[in-house]
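$ run holo --ligand "phosphoric acid mono(formamide)ester" --emit tokens
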Amino acid sequence: AQHLLGIEPLHPTEITTLLDLADQYANDPNSVRHRDVLAGMTQINMFFENSTRTQASFELAGKRLGADVMNMAMQASSLKKGETLIDTALTLNAMHPDLLVVRHPHSGAVDLLAQKVNGAVLNAGDGKHEHPTQALLDALTIRRAKGRIHRLSVAICGDVAHSRVARSNIMLLGKMENRIRLIAPPTLMPSGVAEFGCEVFHDMEEGLKDVDVVMMLRLQKERMDGGFIPSEREYYHRYGLDAAKLAHAKPDAIVMHPGPMNRGVEIDGTIADDINRSVIQTQVEMGVAVRMAAMDLLARNLRARRGAALEGVM
Ligand code: CP
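-- output --
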């Protein structure tokens, strides 16, 4: 593929290829041997929405692979003077970047931008739509902890309705033939999830019964524009992951959270820090490896396309 815009268009074999390569990078992330992979290539990171993990790990991944990495300060860009997203994209495209990493608050904005540029675009999260590298790093974390990424029972809990992380994970876990249980209050459960083969629960203890993986989500108040926002105290009581609720999952179930995490809202701090159950720090670690693998594969494709175009004119 030319871009990585979502999990939806990926074939299970493409997911496995990417995870296998990411696994190799995870075993040896700092090796100088990787420095030639993106040598001579330019990577531009454009984050129109806040990020800690995704932006830092894309920057590190690019640098470890030898790319020239530029972080656009979007708050200080000419978007503030009224320039459109497309004009910004065309302007940057004229500088010939090879890889563009884009996060945007609007669903579909990254796809739109990808149609206007010649380089490879990686979606770093667009609105409520997709966050493909998050789902891939979650899959690698699960595969390393459980030894496989198929035929597992996975609970995705919390604000499913506003979550691009949930959407990309539902796509990926479904393609890899896992059982997906969604647990959320009715107001935070999207409609139509049954068509993706997900089981729906509104009660944590019932939904967590005998699962292998517990994936918690943050309450995304920034996307609840004007809608119902639950009280944090009430929400924690019913949907916050604590030891009592976790006891319903399998004894060796792992606990995940994409971050940023709100302790005492969707998860108890002791559970988040319990190194016997929580793989939250591993998720961050795998984020760098997955982004190295994604950019490596897209760069190979970019070189092949440029080589073919050159042959065409000679
Ligand atoms: N998980 C995730 O996307 O985190 P950031 O918003 O910090 O990048």
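-- notes --
Residues 51-54, 125, 134, 258-260 surround phosphoric acid mono(formamide)ester (CB under 6 Å).
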